[in-house]
C-alpha cells in the first residue's frame, strides 16, 4: 500500500503505516521496513517540534490558477496497484502546485518481504490537459513529491 510522509511528525508517522502490493511506479532505493522501526520513528518525532517551511515550487506550478490546477489529472494507467490482479482499491496521487506546496513523500511497502520503495514524482504520472504547465521545468524534479493521495474502489 502507499504510505506517506511529509515534514510534520504526524505525516511522517503515517508514511510508514500502510502496506501494499509491489508497485511498478515505486522507483526509490529499497529500504527495510518493520513495525518496531515505525514505533522508534514515532517516538523520536514526538520529541521534536513540528517545523519546516515548504520548499519553493517551479514557477510553472507556483503560479497555477485554481482552474489550471484542477485540470491536472493523475494518469490512471499509473495507479499504485494498477498491475495487481483482483485489486479492490486504487491509489492515485495529487500534484503539488498552486496552494499545495508542502511535499508529501509516498512509499510502497511489500508486506511479504517488508521492503519499502519510495515513489518519486515524475511528470509522466500525470495528464496536464490544458493546465499550461511547462513540463520541461519538472524534468528531474523527483524531490517535488506529491500533494497527497486518494483511495477509491478499483474499476471493474
UniProtKB/TrEMBL annotation:
Fetch the Gene3D superfamilies from UniProt.
2.70.98.10
Glucan biosynthesis periplasmic MdoG C-terminal domain: from which residue to which, for each copy?
A: 33-152
Tell me which Pfam families the record gives: MdoG
What InterPro entries would the database entry show?
Gal_mutarotase_sf_dom (IPR011013), GH-type_carb-bd (IPR014718), Glucan_biosyn_MdoG/MdoD (IPR014438), Glucan_biosyn_MdoG_C (IPR007444)
Compartment list: Periplasm
Keyword set, alphabetical order: Signal
Q: Name one GO biological process term.
A: beta-glucan biosynthetic process
Q: Which GO terms describe its molecular function?
A: carbohydrate binding; catalytic activity
**GO CC annotations on file:** outer membrane-bounded periplasmic space
- The protein in question is named Glucans biosynthesis protein G
Q: What is the lineage of its organism?
A: Bacteria, Pseudomonadati, Pseudomonadota, Gammaproteobacteria, Enterobacterales
Amino acid at each position: 500500500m502507499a504510505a506517506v510522509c511529509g515534514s510534520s511528525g504526524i505525516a511522517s508517522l503515517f508514511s510508514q503505516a500502510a502496506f501494499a502490493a509491489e508497485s511498478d511506479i515505486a522507483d526509490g532505493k529499497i529500504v527495510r521496513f518493520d513495525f518496531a522501526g515505525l514505533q522508534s520513528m514515532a517516538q523520536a518525532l514526538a520529541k521534536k517540534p513540528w517545523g519546516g517551511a515548504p520548499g519553493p515550487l517551479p514557477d510553472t506550478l507556483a503560479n497555477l490558477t485554481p482552474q489550471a490546477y484542477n485540470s491536472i489529472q493523475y494518469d490512471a494507467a499509473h495507479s499504485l496497484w494498477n498491475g495487481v490482479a483482483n485489486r479492490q482499491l486504487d491509489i492515485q496521487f495529487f500534484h503539488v502546485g498552486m496552494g499545495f506546496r508542502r511535499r508529501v513523500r509516498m512509499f510502497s511497502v511489500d508486506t511479504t518481504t517488508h521492503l519499502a520503495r519510495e515513489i518519486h514524482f515524475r511528470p509522466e504520472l500525470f495528464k496536464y490537459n490544458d493546465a499550461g504547465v511547462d513540463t520541461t521545468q519538472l524534468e528531474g524534479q523527483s524531490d517535488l513529491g506529491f500533494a497527497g493521495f486518494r483511495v477509491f474502489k478499483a474499476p471493474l
